[in-house]
């Protein structure tokens, strides 16, 4: 084994190889999966895990009980230690963000491959501790950034990788809607904007180098409920994010503009549309002034649409088996949390933050 690079960029001693469960994760020999957190997200994870070939939900835990009735015939265990005692190959963590670190560290100590709902932890320092714990034990550690499994964004990434847009100039995201009753422990930046930060870096294939942001507190809560941010990625790609909990309609849009036009991904509907730069100039001056002389064809692609959460669990299963590496790694989760914290710092100190 060679030298590894730590999450802070410093050289470290070599880490152990990941201990994949190559003989498990099939219909005949499924992974024994435990789920902790049976709230708004946990109930969906329970449903999807049960429906995923090669995974068997064998234990659930939530100290608050099972208000959505997803446990079925399984007893509702009181904590992560009782969950571990059930004998697990893998686990899904869907507890409130403030508990991510403690629960994940207990699972790592027990040798359980784990996916943690986003964000990886309540702050970047905790995220680094979690990521290091799994890496040092040769375990698969994943973070639940489910937007990467959205059909519109997957098709967008494939077309960008194929060069269909040419050079990427800008990534713009809008994620807004009414306040969600499910959130009580974090603000809109860590709950929603974290999705846009992760997907932007992933779609563009470039990391953030700076961000500048503003937030507001309009609903009387301690944490922020509106955010606007701009930033710069490697290669000079400019980004813009608009996120809030106070809009009376729901919107989830990602627009990537480049030298050949613009892709528009609607992750609510799973649709991807391409607006091409035109090659036919308009001689009708009034129309040209309004629409722009370079507006060309518009194409809405027919793409297969699967439930993103189902694909996310399959990716996690395959990572544990060692047959594919399509999951969001904990190192990526920490990198996203670094940008999230830079956004909050920028807003509180009214300055641009370099990364």
UniProtKB/TrEMBL annotation:
Natural source organism: Actinomyces oris
Protein origin, superkingdom: Bacteria
Domain Gfo/Idh/MocA-like oxidoreductase N-terminal: 31-145
Protein name: Dehydrogenase
Pfam entry (one): GFO_IDH_MocA_C3
GO molecular function: nucleotide binding
Span of domain GFO/IDH/MocA-like oxidoreductase: 154-263
């Amino acid at each position: 084994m060679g030298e590894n690079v730590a999450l802070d960029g410093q050289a470290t001693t070599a880490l152990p190889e990941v201990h994949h469960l190559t003989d498990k994760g099939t219909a005949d020999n499924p992974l024994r999966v435990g789920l902790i957190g049976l709230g708004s997200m946990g109930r969906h994870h329970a449903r999807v895990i049960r429906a995923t070939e090669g995974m068997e939900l064998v234990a659930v835990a939530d100290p608050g009980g099972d208000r959505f009735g997803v446990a079925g015939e399984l007893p509702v265990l009181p904590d992560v230690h009782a969950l571990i005692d059930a004998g697990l190959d893998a686990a899904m963590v869907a507890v409130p963000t403030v508990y991510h670190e403690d629960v994940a560290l207990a699972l790592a100590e027990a040798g359980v491959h784990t996916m943690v709902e986003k964000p990886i932890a309540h702050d970047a320092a905790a995220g680094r501790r979690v990521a290091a714990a799994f890496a040092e034990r040769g375990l698969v550690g994943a973070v639940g950034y489910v937007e990467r499994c959205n059909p519109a964004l997957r098709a967008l990434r494939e077309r960008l990788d194929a060069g269909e847009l040419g050079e990427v100039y800008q990534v713009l995201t809008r994620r807004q809607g009414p306040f969600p009753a499910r959130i009580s422990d974090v603000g809109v930046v860590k709950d929603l904007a974290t999705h846009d930060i992760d997907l932007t870096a992933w779609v563009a294939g470039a990391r953030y180098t700076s961000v500048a942001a503003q937030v507001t507190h309009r609903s009387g809560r301690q944490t922020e409920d509106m955010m606007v941010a701009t930033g710069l990625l490697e290669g000079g790609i400019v980004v813009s994010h608009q996120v809030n909990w106070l809009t009376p309609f729901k919107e989830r849009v990602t627009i990537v503009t480049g030298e050949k036009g613009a892709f528009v991904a609607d992750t609510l509907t799973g649709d991807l549309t391409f607006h091409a730069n035109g090659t036919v100039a308009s001689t009708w001056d009034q129309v040209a002034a309004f629409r722009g002389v370079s507006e060309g064809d518009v194409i809405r692609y027919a793409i297969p649409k699967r439930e993103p959460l189902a694909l996310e669990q399959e990716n996690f299963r395959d990572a544990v088996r060692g047959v594919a590496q399509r999951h969001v790694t904990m190192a990526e989760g920490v990198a996203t949390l670094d940008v999230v914290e830079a956004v909050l710092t920028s807003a509180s100190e009214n300055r641009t933050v370099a990364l």
